[in-house]
Every structure is written in C-alpha cells, then in structure tokens.
C-alpha cells in the first residue's frame, strides 16, 4: 500500500469497518479509539485490519510470562547483589544497574497486557507515554551499561594490575550513563524533539519513526547513532580486544609450557578441559549476540520508517522488535549473574530450597581462569 503521511493530512474520525466476503464486519486498526486520541496515532496504522482477538490474547499471555520471569530474575539480582557484602564490588555495580534497567523494561508490561486484553489503545495517550518513556530509559540505559561492562572487563583482562576499577569511578560512570540516557527519553515525552505514539497493534508505544519531516528524520538518525551505534561499537571493540588478549596469553602459556617440557602451566588443567580462549570467546559472543538480537531489529525498523519503504512495516512485523527486547530483558539476569559462582553461593545461603549446590572451592582458580571468569561474569 502507498505511504500516507502522518499528521499532514486531515484525519478520518469515522469508524473504520468494512464487510468481509462471509458477511462479518472487519474492523480496521483504531476503530475503537476515542476521537480525542486519534491525532496521536500515525495514519500509517489505520490502513491495516484489526488482528483477531486470539492474537491479542496470545501476545498478552506471552508478556505475562515475560513479566513474571523478569521480575523474579532481575529482582533476585537486585536483592542479592545489593545486600551481599561479597558481591559489593565496583564491577558488580554495573550488573546491578543492568538488572535495574531490565527490571524497568518489564515493569511497564502491565500497560501492554491491559491494551492487549482490551483490543488496542485502551490505556490512552497517558499510558502510551509512560510505556514509551520507561522503554527509552531502560533500553538506552541497558545499552550504555553493557558498554561500560565491556570496558571494565577489557581493563580487567588487559591491565590486571593497574586496571582495577574503584567504586567512585564506577559510580561516576553510572551517573554518566543516566545523564546520557535521560534526554533521549524526556525530549520526545515533552515533544521538544520527536514524539511518542502507538505502534503495531496499537498496544505498544515507541518514538515516532513514521512521520516524514526533517525534525523527525533528524531525531531518528541521532537516536540511532547515540543509542545504538556508539554502544554497539564500544561493545564490539572491547570484547574483540579481550578475545585477542586471551588468545595471545594462552598461546604464550602453551609455548612456555612446551619449553619447560610440561603439558600445562595451570594446576587444574585436567579438571577444566575446555581452554580459556574458547570459554572467553563464548562469553563475548553471547554478550554481543544478546545486544544485537535485542536492539538491531528496532534500529532497522526505525530506519525503514524514517528513510525506507514504510509498506514493509505491517503491524505484525513491527511487534517483533518489541518482543526481542522484552525477551532479552528476561535472559540478562541469567547470563550476567546466575553464571557467577559467588552469586550462586549467596543465593544458596538465602534460598536453600533451590538446591543449587555450589561449593566454595568452585570460586577458586588460577590467574588465567580468574581473568576469564571475570570477563564471563562480573
């Protein structure tokens, strides 16, 4: 279908209903939106039929599952890492900040669930703005936190003696993360630059990426650069340097062991057959993949909306990036924290009925493996 410019043509306020071949009434998206809320919806969505209620119900149930999984996973991370003295390290401050971002990401889920169970834009523009603002804060904040985690692990591996992070430096970095993040959420909220509106099935909300004006296109390009390209570049650079450093270190260890006519310089080589470079590569690839999987679809969606063929952005297609972001918000606590031996020990002490069975000796390692474990799970 052709592109219909948003907010540049007169809005059609009449009910959007048409007859199907079997005589049933087929509603268009927005048919049940009150007239006062119609100006906040991009005209692009009105050309598509309303999805079946079963699809709304399915998405609502998926979000209920995401909400519960995220609240439990990230809630445990916030509780354990904030209260356990053994985990109150500068590096773990970033883990707590990431868990807070993921917690906030899913704290807005009840708005989506309410909209889904009520066939669309039921929470109105106020609910939409709350949903989008929380999404912007948590999404951009998580991206920059991931970049800081990558930087911290880069220093830990490449400069093990003088690269240690202090609590004050970690706190300053976290404050910078939020100073960097807040404007990108507040400007569209106040409609100073950009604006928020519903998308897809009109149950989720994000910044407007469909209006073809200079200001909106400039906003899309700017937020794409500052909230996606910059943190992504930092993550890829730091983790690639970590992998390179560990590979070269392992190579040096093997060459030295060969000169000394021994199998390995590490005492626990037999207990841990998987090489350090393989484990660090897996951790780095997992972390990069999660960030790419969660935010690349949204970045592509925004670029297509602002500069490409908008007919590709059907309501169903536009719901996929949102699902990716929510899924990763549920997975993050397990990737960043549950793989942490000290976290599991603290969890075992406080919730013994989980039967985690983590031993204190599992946290001990040689220098090489300590660096590896710090890179895999701070």
From TrEMBL:
It comes from Pempsamacra sp. CRS 2021. The lineage of its organism: Eukaryota, Metazoa, Ecdysozoa, Arthropoda, Hexapoda. The keyword Cell wall biogenesis/degradation does not apply. Residues 73-336 form the G-protein coupled receptors family 1 profile domain. PROSITE patterns: G_PROTEIN_RECEP_F1_1, G_PROTEIN_RECEP_F1_2, OPSIN. Belongs to the G-protein coupled receptor 1 family. It is found in: Membrane. It is a multi-pass membrane protein. The chain crosses the membrane at residues 55-81, 93-114, 120-149, 170-190, 216-239. It holds the Pfam family 7tm_1. Keywords: Chromophore, Disulfide bond, G-protein coupled receptor, Glycoprotein, Membrane, Photoreceptor protein, Receptor, Retinal protein, Sensory transduction, Transducer, Transmembrane, Transmembrane helix, Vision. Its main location: membrane. GO terms for biological process: phototransduction; visual perception. GO terms for molecular function: G protein-coupled receptor activity; photoreceptor activity. This is Ultraviolet sensitive opsin. SUPFAM superfamilies: Family A G protein-coupled receptor-like. GO terms for cellular component: membrane.
